[in-house]
Amino acid sequence: MDIQELRSILTRLGVDMKDDTWMIKTGRGKTLLIVSRTGIDKIEKTLAIQFEYKFVSESAYVGMETQIETIKCNPAGGTYREVITIPANSGVNVTVCIRGTCSKGWSEAIGSANPDTTEFKFFADTAATRAKHKVTLKLAELYQHNVKSEDEASEFKRPARKDFAPAIDEALKKIK
After folding, report:
1. CA of 150: how far to CAs of 64, 78, 79, 104, in Å?
2. Is the separation of the CB atoms in 103 and 139 below 8 Å?
3. What's the structural domain count of the chain?
4. Strand pairing category for 147-149 and 31-35
């Protein structure tokens, strides 16, 4: 699928190509189209995706025994939870599985987060967002075409936009 086809699909899904997307090159020379959180929200709304959290697990990260905290969510209500204690000096890895359903069908994805994959210290939120965004892009049939969410990896963040710099400088002068 070429970029024009991707643009057409994303536009039909309510994504603003100028404000909600950007391109990046990976270290392997692959080009990825990245969609912002706002763009993902627009796709979710357009497709009317319903999400269900399948499981959340938290495990000790690096040099620890295989201790795990599991929370299994039942859509009818109720949860099963096994609580463990992770020492304060250890790292944590959180994994979340989410299922999304819409008129096109359903998809599941796993998202994870730990101190090496995000600067944001709320690992469960980060893992859930990553899984949710993957599901959204899969249901939109975009994920397999190298369209990714900005939250999937810290390298996918939008580069600083130079065109904002003059406007910011001008606004700061007015404040002074």
Report:
1. 31, 33, 31, 24
2. no
3. 1
4. parallel
In a domain, 113, yes or no: yes
- Structure token pair of residue 65: 């025994």
| Whole-angstrom distance, CA of residue 101 vs CA of residue 151 | 21
- Using N-to-C axis directions, what is the helix angle for 37-47 and 123-139, rounded to 10°? 50
Domain membership of residue 51 (yes or no) is yes
Residue 176 located in a structural domain: no
| Domain coverage including residue 38 | 3-158
Give domain status of residue 125, yes or no: yes
Q: Which residues contact 83 (CB under 8 A, 6 or more apart)?
A: 69
C-alpha closest to that of 87 among 113, 59, 112: 59
Considering the entire predicted model, what is its pTM? Answer: 0.72
Q: Say which residues have a Cβ less than 8 Å from residue 4's Cβ, sequence separation at least 6.
A: none
52-63 confidence digits (pLDDT tens) = 987 777 765 544
